[in-house]
Amino acid sequence: MKKVGHVISLFSSLAEGQTNVELFSVDTKGIINDKHYNKNADRAVLITSLSSYELMKKNNINEPYGTLGENILIDYNIYQHHAGVRVKIGNVVMEIVQLCTLCKGLSSIDSKLPKLLKEDRGIFVKVIEPGTIYKDDEIYLLD
Question: Domain MOSC: where (predicted)?
């Protein structure tokens, strides 16, 4: 197990929109009480790296955290890892499934975003071991 970073922010998708939270509970169906809960276990949680927001800022796109639709914003560039790699955040174990696919919603923020963030928007993970994730939790890569 190797420590690689920590959680910067957490977001839950509710009917009224993306909400910044201090913690959330997850199980194998996703984030409990999230509007996407029990929709697709392989896309249960979206993790985004601060590097995505840094890339946006370098291109004069200044948006607040949560704009990219992430559930977990971290200070580690996780995009370099492939499907099957497992990470532990707090007491939750998750497995990388795939890079996040781009959606038309990014164009409504800025027309440059889809091309700019093609492989840097986020990564989908599925929950292997349920638990609770807190803001500031440490992140570990599992062997």
Answer: 18-142
